[in-house]
Design goal:
The protein is mainly beta. The protein has no helices and 28 strands. It has one domain: Neuraminidase. 50% of the residues are buried.
């Protein structure tokens, strides 16, 4: 349902080897998806997709067993990686965007993770689709680290070993040389943005600026790598979408994208949908289902927003 709030209308080719086929949990393989949003629904915790040319009120369901969190579309638009929770265990799994059988990529407790990998979060494919980077808890540590695994489930590497800070949802640079991720003393205090090279060199950190206390969930790199978008938490407790310039010197000049003034409105999970447009999750704490909205960036003034997909959570967009 559309409504006015604060005067604004709120409305790669994967590797040659395949991961283990678990059977079940998927669909029949007749889904029509070229470009659009992947997301979960909170009532059943399954992966859904809706094509930009499809009906947002009738999304197509890709999994059936529930327990799904944080789906992410590959750069070629052919696959989705997500976390599936079963009791206290977590696993990275994949499913084709055309529908079909889900497959397990990597499971918590895998022997190739010597410190013990648990509590997987927010996976994302590399631009060439050959690896996945994700957040995990190493052993009994109170901080979170970044791990990388090949798309056939082999070659696990901890990207931030012996870290004293926590890392949040990663996003790849377009050339695949590094990931950008929020970082801080814990997942609730991600008050910096880290550039984590994949060649083993040390991360570099930037402050958020513009009165933003922390990143709530995600930093997303723009298609050309010159900007980042993030959901910034303010001292009021509100969460708003920001876009900042990004380069070798780090993050600078963060600007608020929207101007939704109601205190109950939360804007989270940004995902680039064009070079000058973002999709994000819009949640009104006063009630109602969360939905995916779009807003234009780079106009110099806060943008109005429009409804893209109702009844959705944790969105990802692709391919770009």
């Amino acid at each position: 349902m559309r409504r006015f709030i604060g005067g604004v209308l709120a409305v790669g080719l994967l590797g040659a080897c395949e991961p283990i086929d678990d059977g079940g949990g998927g669909t029949t393989g007749d889904v029509l998806f070229t470009q659009g949003f992947a997301f979960v629904r909170e009532d059943d915790r399954n992966v859904y997709v809706v094509d930009d040319d499809g009906d947002p009120n009738s999304p197509q369901k890709l999994t059936t067993t529930g327990g799904v969190y944080w789906p992410s579309v590959s750069r070629d638009g052919r696959s989705i990686v997500f976390v599936q929770r079963t009791g206290t265990a977590t696993a990275l799994r994949t499913v084709p965007t055309s529908g079909g059988t889900t497959a397990t990529l990597f499971s918590s407790g895998d022997a190739s993770c010597p410190r013990g990998c648990t509590n997987f979060r927010t996976p994302t494919f590399s631009p060439d689709g050959r690896t996945v980077v994700f957040v995990f808890s190493p052993g009994n540590s109170s901080v979170t680290s970044l791990g990388r695994v090949n798309s056939d489930g082999s070659g696990f590497v901890e990207l931030t070993p012996n870290t004293t800070v926590s890392y949040g949802a990663p996003s790849f640079l377009p050339n695949g040389s590094a990931v950008i991720a929020p970082s801080g003393s814990g997942l609730g205090q991600l008050n910096q943005i880290a550039r984590v090279p994949l060649d083993g060199s040390s991360p570099r950190f930037s402050s958020l600026g513009n009165g933003v206390l922390a990143v709530e969930n995600r930093v997303a790199v723009s298609p050309n790598g010159s900007q980042v978008a993030f959901d910034g938490r303010l001292s009021s407790g509100s969460v708003r979408i920001y876009v900042a310039s990004f380069g070798d010197s780090g993050v600078s000049g963060a600007q608020r994208v929207t101007d939704l003034t109601a205190a109950s409105v939360q804007e989270t999970w940004p995902s680039w949908t064009r070079s000058n447009q973002l999709g994000f999750l819009f949640v009104d704490a006063s009630g109602g289902d969360p939905g995916i909205y779009r807003a234009t960036t780079g106009t110099g003034t806060p943008s109005s927003v429009s409804l893209a997909v109702p009844s959705a959570a944790e969105p990802s967009y692709g391919p770009l």
